[in-house]
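Reminder to self: tokens first, then the designed residues, so the page reads top to bottom the way the pipeline ran.
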């Protein structure tokens, strides 16, 4: 009986051991699978335990920090500390599996991007597509922050949820508010893709570029949701990210490093590239296939010119990854003001254009500057408020119904007969830096009197966009003229262009809504060597009205059929 119990217990022990072994095997397979599918990427505790501070190699003139620490009298330590980034230690499994994992990989291309980024206008952005684990976008965003250019936003785009989570973690550790992480792949079609996560090269088990992407049968899957043994990801066109306002800034630089999907990514953003004409940095390798002549793309620097918008040219390649750099031919110094529209106090995007012109013409010199604007209502929404509040300029505002001495807004009804006398009354200097005209009626006649007696650097004048750029139309002058809500007001763009030319001004831009036109004195254009897009061609500068349901998108039609006259008829009135 005793022997029988031992035998039964022995069988139970064997069974328990077998069960434990099976469970251990299941756990091993489970954790191996979870590792292969990057589940540990979300382990922030592991990240926290393995962070370190490293110098950002793209910030120049790094001083010897250790010497500074030993020098108690040195007061630059805070500045030097700002040159450090929080990053992951290289000996942890995550970093080993995600080559490249250091900032200095492809140093030349990242340095090239930063160099060009620092020249970008305000509120521009950089697109880093194929951001990997942020080994490019993070030091770039940090370098821009260090150089006080946080207005430039870096968009880190990658299809891997886990890599994006890691970038978010590092972004937050470094307080990089100028870095935006987008969990997408870029392609020329919007679709759900899946991958079996099997690397097709030696770049590492979890290098996304080594994956084979296929359209998912279940296109209703959530982004990066697990689907059995596959990872499911959303691929989208760059054009749609811009159209849907997910990317909200003017695009100055695009970097594509998507392991063979460069062509698809470009084609999916062709309208965006055509609009912004960004500086293009594109990885080129044999994975992109062959061109129509059978030449491997890795040996053909002009390959991408086959589908980039017209006007791009190859200029050089950078880095060990054969990154090709493209820019717009003969377009590096052309100023496209459409990129700068921004509403702060103005009715539309005039503030942004004004700020750009101030930067081009005056730089940081804001002393002894003077503006005049009439037709400002109460002065809260107008084109010159930004000059008073942001630049501390002095100036005069006039309106027929409002007055506020605190902001030098005077209640005056402006006519061509009294405008010069009003300027004298309020001590307007002979040199006006910015003049704004918007009285919805006799604009042509008042502007003519001003520029025949005063010199202006910049003029902002309302034009009547219901008239096409080949139409020379000006309302007939009458002291009693007041806008009645119809499209009978002011002057056409062609008439304004003719008036400008007579007094040595050039039309340079019309805002997107077809409301205001900007002119600059030709002496300034020459002295500053300013090259504005489409200057001299008002048919391209003209914007149709975008504010009503009347003719050409403008105000309702004038059913009185009042007569217009031409520039030649109006100039001598």
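Designed residues (573 positions):
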């Amino acid at each position: 009986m005793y022997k029988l119990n031992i035998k039964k217990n022995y069988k139970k022990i064997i069974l328990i051991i077998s069960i434990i072994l099976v469970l251990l095997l299941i756990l091993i397979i489970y954790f191996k699978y979870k590792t292969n599918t990057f589940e540990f990427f979300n382990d922030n505790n592991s990240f926290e335990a393995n962070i370190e501070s490293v110098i950002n190699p793209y910030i120049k003139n790094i001083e010897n920090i250790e010497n500074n620490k030993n020098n108690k009298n040195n007061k630059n330590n805070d500045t030097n500390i700002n040159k450090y980034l929080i990053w992951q230690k290289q000996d942890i499994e995550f970093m080993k599996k995600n080559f490249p994992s250091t900032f200095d990989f492809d140093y030349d291309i990242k340095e090239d991007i930063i160099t060009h980024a620092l020249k970008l206008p305000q509120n521009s952005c950089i697109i880093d597509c194929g951001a990997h684990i942020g080994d490019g976008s993070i030091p770039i965003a940090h370098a821009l922050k260090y150089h006080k250019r946080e207005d430039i936003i870096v968009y880190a785009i990658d299809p891997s949820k886990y890599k994006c989570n890691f970038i978010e973690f590092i972004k937050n550790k470094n307080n990089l508010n100028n870095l935006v992480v987008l969990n997408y792949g870029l392609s020329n079609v919007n679709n759900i893709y899946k991958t079996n996560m099997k690397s097709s090269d030696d770049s590492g088990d979890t290098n996304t570029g080594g994956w084979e992407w296929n359209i998912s049968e279940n296109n209703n899957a959530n982004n990066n949701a697990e689907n059995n043994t596959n990872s499911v990801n959303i691929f989208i066109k760059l054009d749609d990210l811009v159209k849907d306002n997910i990317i909200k800034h003017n695009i100055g630089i695009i970097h594509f490093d998507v392991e063979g999907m460069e062509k698809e990514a470009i084609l999916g953003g062709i309208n965006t590239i055509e609009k912004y004409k960004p500086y293009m940095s594109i990885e080129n390798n044999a994975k992109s296939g062959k061109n129509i002549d059978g030449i491997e793309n890795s040996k053909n620097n002009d390959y991408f010119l086959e589908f980039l918008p017209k006007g791009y040219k190859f200029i050089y390649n950078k880095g060990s990854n054969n990154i090709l750099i493209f820019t717009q031919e003969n377009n590096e110094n052309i100023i496209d003001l459409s990129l700068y529209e921004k509403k702060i106090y103005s009715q539309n995007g005039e503030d942004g254009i004004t700020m750009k012109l101030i930067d081009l013409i005056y730089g940081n010199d804001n002393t002894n500057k003077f503006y005049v604007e009439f037709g400002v209502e109460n002065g809260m929404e107008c084109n010159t408020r930004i000059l008073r509040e942001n630049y501390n300029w002095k100036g005069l505002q006039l309106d027929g119904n409002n007055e506020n001495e605190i902001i030098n807004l005077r209640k005056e009804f402006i006519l061509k007969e009294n405008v010069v006398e009003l300027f004298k009354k309020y001590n307007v200097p002979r040199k006006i830096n910015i003049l704004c005209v918007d009285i919805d009626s006799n604009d042509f006649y008042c502007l003519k009197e001003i520029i025949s007696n005063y010199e202006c650097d910049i003029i902002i004048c309302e034009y009547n966009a219901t008239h096409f750029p080949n139409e020379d139309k000006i309302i007939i002058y009458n002291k009693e003229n007041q806008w009645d809500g119809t499209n009978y007001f002011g002057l056409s763009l062609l008439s304004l262009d003719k008036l400008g030319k007579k007094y040595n001004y050039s039309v340079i831009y019309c805002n997107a809504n077809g409301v205001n036109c900007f002119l600059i004195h030709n002496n300034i254009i020459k002295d500053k060597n300013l090259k504005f897009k489409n200057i001299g061609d008002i048919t391209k500068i003209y914007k149709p009205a975008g504010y009503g349901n009347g003719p050409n998108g403008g105000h309702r039609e004038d059913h009185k059929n009042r007569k217009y006259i031409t520039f030649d008829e109006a100039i001598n009135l």
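Residues 105-328 form a domain with the Rossmann fold fold (CATH 3.40.50.150).
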